[in-house]
Amino acid sequence: MATHSMNKEVLVDLQEKYDKVRKLLDEDSKRDPPSEPYKSKYAASVILTDMKSILVKLVEDSDCLKFKAMLGVVSLNLGLVSVDTEELSTGEEQLMNCVDSLCDDALKPEIILILMTALNQLGILWSERGDPQKSKEYLDRAEKLYEEFTAHLSSSTAAVPFHDLFRTSSPEMPQPDTENMLERLYTLTMYYLAQVHGSLNDHVKSAAYCHTTLKRQLESKDFDPVDWALNSATLSQFFMEKNGFSQARHHLAAASYILDQYESDLNLQEGNDETFEAKRERLRHRSADVARCWAKYGLMLLSNSRERLMSEENENEEEASGTSNSNTEELGDVKHLWFTSLELSCYEDQITDKHILVYEDARKVFVDAQKWLAKAKQYYTLDEHASDCVQIVQDLSQLYKYLAFFEEDEKRQSRMHKRRVDHLESVLKELNPQYYLLVCRQLWYELGETYSDILDIKLQRLQMTDERPTPHALWKVNHLAQQSISNFSKFIESLRDASTKKMPARLNEDVLRPALIAYFRVGRLYSKIVTPDKVVQLQYLGKSLDAYQFLVDYCRNDEGAKKYVSVELAVCEDMVKLLPLKLEKLKHEVQQEGQEWKHVS
Amino acid sequence: MATDKIKVAVRVRPFNRRELELGTQCVVQMEAQQTILHHLERKQSKTFAFDHCFFSLEPTTEKFASQEIVFDCLGRDILDNAFQGYNACIFAYGQTGSGKSYTMMGGQDNKGIIPRLCDSLFDLIAKQQSLELTYKVEVSYMEIYNEKVHDLLDPKTNKQSLKVREHNVLGPYVDGLSQLAVTSFQDIDNLMAEGNKSRTVAATNMNSESSRSHAVFSVVLTQTLTDTKSGVSGEKVSRMSLVDLAGSERAVKTGAVGDRLKEGSNINKSLTTLGLVISKLADQSSGGKNKDKFVPYRDSVLTWLLKDNLGGNSKTVMVATISPAADNYEETLSTLRYADRAKRIVNHAVVNEDPNARIIRELRQEVEALKEMLKNA
Fold first, then answer.
1. Annotated active-site positions of B, please?
2. Is residue B176 part of an annotated ligand binding site?
3. Is the CB of residue A233 less than 8 Å away from at least one CB of chain B?
4. Chain B, 288-347: which have a CB under 8 Å from a chain A CB?
5. Contact yes or no for A516/A561 (Cβ under 8 A)
6. Is residue A86 a part of any domain in this protein?
7. Which parts form a coiled-coil structure per UniProt (chain B) (predicted)?
8. What residues are paired with B150 via a beta bridge?
9. Could you report how far apart the first and last alpha carbons of chain A are, in Å?
């Protein structure tokens, strides 16, 4: 057996070597020249190999846990260096060595940090090799290890940091960055599992692990508030798409809470310098983004509610699926994703997380989302963020559209659609089509549809009454039809080739269906214009026919287009057969009338 | 002319002297619009399709793609677009030694895309200008590094970060970026050389994971047409942007070049990338349209650049350069994957239409009514 004094010398030597390794890896390697990028790492590797042979002997001789742990640290670091210097196979071998030699003592405080680090690294390694399943195995092991260790935790079993293993004398003061090393490792395990589940296409699990990562960041108080809030708000968008409205709202509320807290903190600080300004700017920017996420939440809630009501009508369901969301939510087992350390009720109470059934509730959601859009628009101004500003206006238009669905009074519905028109037209006229052509197209199209929606409401009302429509009412109908036609036409015109001024023989897949539908709608709209003058009627009927004809001709020339508009095509084919006959009839009437007039004069 | 997608071209360079001396194997094959990458040991090869595959390996072969051919395919359209008043953008991507500089700049006797573009530009101007039609050419040069924009042509301010803006009338621009008048390619060459001196040095350290510095050189063409009788003049302004994308080997492996172009399944080690992971998660649609949710931009500046050059009447081209050598297999594969991903970037500003079931029902009824009416006519 080695004497106490000889051991002490060996230990001091090991400590010095370890300190050297740390310096090489943590400091020197950052300054390695591009021509020798791994210089420090290779140097560290040499020392580590030396330490390894010393420790192997020590372990053989005494089987002491501390030596085993030290050997584990050395193997771990050899593995890390190998991975960093792109020798994955050697790295794997060393890391596996480390894990295998320590797994019998896994739950010991001297061992746990080493093992968790090694398992995390093996997770990364296998992921880099393109085997997420294998990666997940190691990360799952790390997760279980933590859970078992912390289940049996008592005050004396704090995990031992690496360099404490090598230290030969008492520390002067606790090293700050080794505190909570276990917690930090576990947070990384959670983060890596989030990514691996993403690679395995289990997105719900991935989101759950992202939530856990965020939660742990909160609890460790180790996070950048703006980043954290943005992440939480972004995650909410995932949840709401899965009908997890409670979870979505909760994550949005958390985001707002953290941002508000950060804003108060900033306000307490004094400063006018560039860094302070940059912080304020960043806060403004990302607050606007969180506001947009909130608005999308409201929109999705309204849109989902509408779909539910519409599908219930169609299926004639007997039980109105009450106010609970759980039957349509797709989050499965991982529902309980709450930031228990935050008090969020004042944020969450502002908007519901249940499906909407009646107008009053829809209106509350509308008002809330509208307020968030107004906030976002303060940052995303038209002259600095034109595209974003337009998107916000489009969201506002959608809000009105959904609100109109829940409104039963037709006059009020019309007014809501009219608000849409006002907002869309007012932003459209400010845009230069040279730079924003695609955006202008979207706006023209939506205006075409909106005017058409208002038209339909008016027509319906006219049909319901038995009285003759007033001239004003007819004028209104025609005006709406013309406006709708005008907007659809502008959309169509924008597709013309810039030099030849002709419609392209083949339309781009992205615009194919909208373009053909635009013709379809225009065809129908021309037939809605009311006029006593038969000559004018004839003109409009001709234009209607032309529009339907375009669709038919296009599909004849482009077989592939048929599948995009099969239903509309069938109707158009009928129309182009029948309308010419109607046209003939009308022409005949016009001629007869002309002759009658002749007789008179 | 209008397109929502990037046109992607790949070019393979000849063997260099060292490779020839070592007798290195060629692992790149090109057939029409396909590039095939062979692995010497494993039997499977990987095939990629691109809009253009420029085979510049061997000057004596028939299908050799010379500087002139590359320019004819990619540069002429861009110039035409500019004279019509529309914007264009060329992205150059390639790792050190893959021939990117040669393709973009070239040398005295074998000029690359940029000198040819500029020469043609000034030639056309000389031919077309008159009392009524005058031209002005200005250039700007900026660097995007760590989400910050620096003016490489203004020695006073190039440490400051400039703001990118989208004006509703003026379009996208960088606030405060200096624009200098030029009258020849020589002027342009001199300015680029000056600007290059100011590029961030740290960006070239291969070990730095955040070494993503992109340089954007823009040529702004202003055409003024004056009606001599009335004195009224109209202006057309177009911009050609040449983006040199950071192509460090590390950057490609960690996928650190814009979140839309992130490499597949590698784990990001640092929690600083949590935002990108969550964004990616939220982005992947579960059948819904992209407009139903809002995913905040992370790599905003580069994405903004890409976004604003797609769609409308802008032309966007990416040129990726690769080495033919077997020992560059990994880098070549990375580049090809990157270029492949670029193909799929589409401006998502597609029109969303409302369902028109009601209208169809109504029209069907009308068809029936018409049939009835004509039967009785």
1. 97, 99-102, 244, 247
2. no
3. yes
4. 288, 291-296, 307-308, 311-313, 346-347
5. yes
6. yes
7. none
8. B143
9. 136
Residue A600 lies in a domain: yes
pTM for the model stands at 0.85
Look-up of token digits 């008179």: A600
Cα separations in angstroms, A199 against A131, B263, B264:
9, 11, 8
CB pairs under 8 A between A and B: 211
What residue segments make up the domains of chain B, in order of their start?
2-376
Pick from B2, B277, B296: which is nearest to A194 by CB? B277
Q: Which of residues 364-393 of A touch B (CB under 8 A)?
A: 382-389
Describe chain A by its helix, strand, coil percentages, rounded to 5. Answer: 75, 0, 25
Q: Which residues, in sequence order, are bridge partners of residue B219? A: B139, B240
| CATH fold of B2-376 | Kinesin (3.40.850)
Best mutation target among A234, A375, A544, A564 (most B Cβ atoms within 10 Å) is A234
Closest CB to B4 among A385, A508, A574: A508
* Structural domain total, chain A: 2
With an 8 Å Cβ cutoff, is B166 touching chain A?
yes
> What CATH number does the domain containing A31 carry?
1.25.40.10
Q: Would residue A152 count as lying in a domain?
A: yes
Query: Residue A73 half-sphere exposure, CB side, CA atoms within 13 Å?
Result: 25
Instruction: Show pLDDT as tens, one digit a residue, over chain B (377 residues).
Output: 345 567 899 999 999 888 888 888 999 999 989 999 998 777 778 899 999 999 999 888 888 999 999 999 999 888 988 888 888 888 888 887 888 888 988 888 889 998 999 999 999 999 999 988 999 999 999 888 777 788 999 877 667 788 888 899 988 888 889 999 999 889 998 998 888 888 765 444 444 444 467 888 899 999 998 888 888 888 888 888 888 877 644 433 333 333 333 345 567 888 888 888 888 888 886 555 567 899 887 766 666 666 655 555 678 888 999 999 988 888 888 888 888 877 766 554 567 777 788 888 889 998 998 888 877 76
Q: What residue has token string 């640092």?
A: B270
B84 is in an annotated binding site: no
